[in-house]
Automatic annotation (TrEMBL):
<protein>
    <submittedName>
        <fullName>Serine-pyruvate aminotransferase</fullName>
        <ecNumber>2.6.1.51</ecNumber>
    </submittedName>
</protein>
<dbReference type="InterPro" id="IPR015424">
    <property type="entry name" value="PyrdxlP-dep_Trfase"/>
</dbReference>
<keyword id="KW-0670">Pyruvate</keyword>
<feature type="binding site">
    <location>
        <position position="333"/>
    </location>
    <ligand>
        <name>substrate</name>
    </ligand>
</feature>
<dbReference type="InterPro" id="IPR024169">
    <property type="entry name" value="SP_NH2Trfase/AEP_transaminase"/>
</dbReference>
<keyword id="KW-0808">Transferase</keyword>
<feature type="modified residue" description="N6-(pyridoxal phosphate)lysine">
    <location>
        <position position="191"/>
    </location>
</feature>
<dbReference type="GO" id="GO:0008453">
    <property type="term" value="F:alanine-glyoxylate transaminase activity"/>
</dbReference>
<feature type="domain" description="Aminotransferase class V">
    <location>
        <begin position="33"/>
        <end position="305"/>
    </location>
</feature>
<dbReference type="GO" id="GO:0004760">
    <property type="term" value="F:L-serine-pyruvate transaminase activity"/>
</dbReference>
<dbReference type="GO" id="GO:0019265">
    <property type="term" value="P:glycine biosynthetic process, by transamination of glyoxylate"/>
</dbReference>
<keyword id="KW-0032">Aminotransferase</keyword>
<keyword id="KW-0663">Pyridoxal phosphate</keyword>
<comment type="similarity">
    <text>Belongs to the class-V pyridoxal-phosphate-dependent aminotransferase family.</text>
</comment>
<dbReference type="Pfam" id="PF00266">
    <property type="entry name" value="Aminotran_5"/>
</dbReference>
<dbReference type="InterPro" id="IPR015421">
    <property type="entry name" value="PyrdxlP-dep_Trfase_major"/>
</dbReference>
<dbReference type="InterPro" id="IPR020578">
    <property type="entry name" value="Aminotrans_V_PyrdxlP_BS"/>
</dbReference>
Length: 374
């Protein structure tokens, strides 16, 4: 049976050259000194992608590991943490902080719009006594892109360490870590980078490193402790055996983006055409503004279920995603990120969606795929 075209918002299609890199003959990464150089070079390439001079680490685990590692390493019992919440992952970040003993204060904003920075500014005038703040760049379930270019400088003005979940935006959206004063930027391999799932990476500012090293109490755990990575290169000692094949693949995927040079522009152009095609056809996009260029969440037409649409799309050879939590059964999601973000793949996807929705009785204006091309 032919595998479906994967048009989900991660994991995404993995290109042949990345798969080839993953299949390279491996060495022993613990004792082969050349691998320490390769790991460092890969971290430097990721830093180039993030526009940062900060230290970069690659961790063996899916993107959630990075979120928890940041919380585990920075938070001590009783620390006040600001959780900037306008979506599922934004609110969920607060749960990680609570697990490590934080006193979490939530700043809530409209779940269908980009974060209200003016309201956050007013909030911080009244209360800014926080060790760190957690926030999400791209809320993948809703398709909202938050203005971290305005949020993080504001947090910096108040001396608050910023921890940004940018797992589904890196490689598809502009991210200027140093210019925007982002202390910790968290990424994952399986979204816009289109590498296999299984790795998280993060950049860490000097301020964040000093906070980790200046703890009064030890980190409650080993694997999530960023402190164990200090001087790994100088000492030629990894805290644990590295997933060498995954890192080979990630390095190639990052190199592909660097060489393309116009990846962000490609995502912006394709995303705008997708949104225009959907709305011109009479469908509703969940995000009212500040829309992501990596994923679009479409409101499921009244009277239909996600499973009906998913099954129909799969029968047409295309895999799309639903959502979870409060968005379960509310939206379907099309991932136009990484290797998914090309005209041919989106045309096939939208043509299939047009056919499936019509078969389910939805009245479509024109043809979705024709609107995409026009």
């Amino acid at each position: 049976m032919k595998k479906p075209l994967i048009m989900t918002p991660g994991p995404t299609y993995v290109s042949e050259d990345v798969r080839d890199a993953m299949s390279k003959e491996i060495t022993n990464p613990d004792i082969d000194l050349s691998f320490y150089e390769f790991y460092r070079e890969t971290c430097e390439k990721i830093g180039q992608l993030l526009n940062t001079e900060n230290k970069v680490l690659i961790l063996d685990g899916e993107g959630i590991l990075g979120l928890e590692a940041a919380c585990a390493s920075l938070i001590e019992v009783g620390d006040r943490v600001l959780c900037i919440d306008n979506g599922i992952f934004g609110r969920g970040f607060g749960d990680f902080a609570k697990m490590y003993g934080a006193e979490v204060v939530y700043f809530e904003s409209d779940y269908r719009r980009g974060l209200d920075v003016a309201a956050l500014e007013e909030f911080l005038k009244q209360d800014s006594d926080f060790k760190l703040a957690t926030l999400v760049h791209c809320e993948t379930p809703s398709g909202i892109l938050n203005p971290v270019d305005r949020i993080c400088p504001l947090l910096d003005e108040h001396g608050i360490i910023s921890v940004v979940d940018s797992v589904s935006s890196i490689g598809g959206e502009e991210l200027l870590v140093d210019k925007w004063k982002i202390d910790i930027a968290l990424g994952g391999s399986q979204k816009c980078l289109s590498a296999p799932p299984g790795l998280t990476f993060l950049s860490v500012s000097d301020r964040a490193w000093n906070a980790v090293k200046g703890r009064k109490t030890p980190v409650a755990g080993f694997y999530c402790n960023l402190g164990i990575w200090e001087n790994w290169y100088e000492n030629k000692w990894f805290p644990y055996t590295q997933p060498i094949s995954d890192i080979y693949a990630l390095s190639k995927a990052v190199q592909n983006i660097i060489e393309e040079q116009t990846t962000v522009e490609r995502h912006a152009e394709i995303a705008e055409r997708v949104r225009t095609a959907l709305e011109s056809s009479g469908l509703e996009i969940y995000a009212k503004d500040s829309r992501s260029n990596a994923v679009t969440s479409v409101v499921i037409p009244e009277g239909l279920s996600y499973s009906e649409i998913y099954d129909g799309m799969l029968s047409e050879g295309v895999m799309i995603a639903g959502a979870f939590d409060y968005l379960a059964g509310v939206v379907l999601r099309i991932g136009h990120m990484g290797e998914n973000c090309y005209e041919e793949k989106l045309y096939i996807t939208l043509k299939a969606l047009d056919k499936v929705l019509r078969a389910l009785g939805v009245k479509i204006k024109g043809k979705i795929h024709s609107n995409f091309i026009d």
